[in-house]
Amino acid sequence: MFQDTVKIGDIVRVKTDLQYPEPPIYGKVWHEYMGKTGIIVEVTHDEIPDCERVVLWIEGREAEFFLNEVEILNGN
């Protein structure tokens, strides 16, 4: 299910824009960075409170997606 709450330990899937040929990205939330709004993990909320974008750090890659593209497969 698609959610706006991503926690450390969640397994996430990202469905990228159809304009991009890359397949969906899978990864596990593994790191928390304190001091900013939200959690910075493999999936992180933007610093702007009402922003619907998330930045993903998955398998050493960084990319930005819309929040509704992030699906939690196995939440803790």
Strand content: 35-45%
Q: Count the strands?
A: 6
Radius of gyration, in angstroms, nearest whole number = 11 Å
SSE string, helices as H and strands as E = EEEEEE
Order of strands, widest sheet: 2-1-6
3D shape: globular
Query: Unreliable stretches, pLDDT < 50, 5 or more residues?
Result: 30-46
End-to-end separation in angstroms reads 14 Å
Number of helices: 0
Would you give an account of this structure?
The protein has 76 residues and is mainly beta. It has one domain. Helices cover 0% and strands 37% of the residues. The chain has no helices and 6 strands. It has strands spanning 11-14, 25-28, 43-45, 53-58, 61-66, 70-74. Strands 2-1-6 form a 3-stranded antiparallel sheet, with no helix packed on it. β4 and β5 (61-66) form a beta hairpin. The radius of gyration is 11 Å and the shape is globular. The relative contact order is 0.34. Residues 30-46 have low confidence and may be disordered.
